[in-house]
Amino acid sequence: MNKQTETVLSYHNRSKHSLERYAKGPESIDWEDQPDQFRRFSGCEIVTLPLPGAELEPLFADLDKPETIPARPLNLINAGLLLELAFGLSAWKQFGPSRWALRCNPSSGNLHPTEAYLVSTGNGFIKPGVYHYVSHDHSLEQRCRFSDNLPDSSILVGLSSVHWREAWKYGERAFRYCQHDIGHALGALRYAAATLGWSVELQAEWSDDDIAKLLGLDRDDFKKQEHESPDIICRIDAHASGKPLDVNALLEAAQSGAWFGKADSLRAYHMYKWPVIDEVATAASKPRTEEPDWQANKQQFIKSPCTKTASQIIRQRRSAQQFDGKMSPLPQTDFYRMLATVMPTTAAFDLWRWPPKIHLFIFVHRVEGLAPGIYALPRHNDALEPLQAATLADFDWQKVSETLPLYHLHSGDCRQIAKTLSCHQPIASDSAFSLGMVAEFGDTIAEKPWLYRRLFWECGLIGQTLYLEAEAAGIRGTGIGCYFDDSVHELLGIKNDKFQCLYHFTVGKPLEDKRLETLPAYGHLTSA
Ligand SMILES: Cc1cc2nc3c(=O)[nH]c(=O)nc-3n(C[C@H](O)[C@H](O)[C@H](O)COP(=O)(O)O)c2cc1C
Fold first, then answer.
1. Quick one: which of 162, 307, 386, 525 is 20 to 30 A from 113 by CA?
2. 459 inside domain
3. Pocket residue to mutate for ligand 1, from 104, 105, 107, most atoms within 8 A of Cβ
């Protein structure tokens, strides 16, 4: 095992929560001192995007066949819609004097460590260069002006993480949450692009250093502990040109371009330091690689009965904070539809270039026609036997669906255990079902420690799909980052790091907190 993998494994183990102790985090939190959720760079030219909130025609159900959605022209209105539907504000909530923004992409603790950038290679509507998206203002800050247009006339979207923003509340486990959030943001980007009739190409070959160079993250423009770590770069293909991107030309344009602005301080007092996060970030940093263009064969599956538009569903997505523990059972077709959409054979995963490494273990609490208990959904066939071998011998692995690889393992009321395992949170037991996402772990990171992050991204992508599918089915989901890792493994019979559980999720009938007032997402722009 190489040194970097050792560092990643050691981080993974020490950032586990257990029934006896939580992973190391701050002993106290001063909410007045929360890091600013909205990064801004002072000294940049601002490009105001057209007013957000436009409703688009495609139905959520149309996203199953994205090729049938006509591609909208690449212009400032549509680029603005892309950013809004992926990373923009979706509402404000108010309780007494407290007021906080929600966004189309979810985030653990609503801390939003993810930052988004738009890169224009030269097209009619925005000068070639690098722009930082400010979701609060729905505007772009021009960080870099390229001296010339590049031959490729597309846009790219880059994502990075301010680890500190998450670590402020969650301490050492925060690095994991930052990765989950990147996966959710990638999912949010894919759904936003599909609504516009565009596709997203994950530029997985790039190294993190390449991404940092292009987005200016390696520059001396950030307060030391508030720097951004490079994560993902995607090309948004509005016209399905399919031409490969010239990485070196882009990097050269960024290097010879004129850069503007300095990141404003996030204003938090850095009372606690979590050096292990910098250590794991360095150990899991990605070199340039060659990557496959793997894609699962697309398959027909249960059509979504949802008649709302995709933009409605995207903007109404929320995390449920409480569920109705007395809900009538979830219709089986809704359950099967949700599970079908997280299979790699669906359009939601068309940007994912690798065979799936994340499999679901589901606690069914209230689903029509299914006995409460534990079920498994291996997301590809080859994982079935290894999962059977790695889990309890008395799981019965009875296939319960003709169309889905869904297996019954154990019957029984699992509400209490699901709640306990998810850090005693009732959202894991009062729902229709909750689940653990189990990764093919040890072998994946043995030689390539940077794949640690990609495993969490895949979890986030699945989570984002479940969030939107739950809304489309008239119910609601919530990501669960807090769970007792090794107790989950023990329950399933997992004895070593060949498989590890990396994320939980829950779906059910939400109970609204009537004390909270909901305000429009961008009222502050129209009333200004
Ligand atoms: C990676 C991740 C982990 C989360 N973990 C929890 C959790 O353990 N418990 C919980 O109640 N909510 C959890 N959430 C939900 C967030 O608190 C929620 O996304 C955030 O408050 C923003 O609200 P919204 O999703 O309604 O926009 C998690 C969300 C994400 C993305």
1. 525
2. yes
3. 107
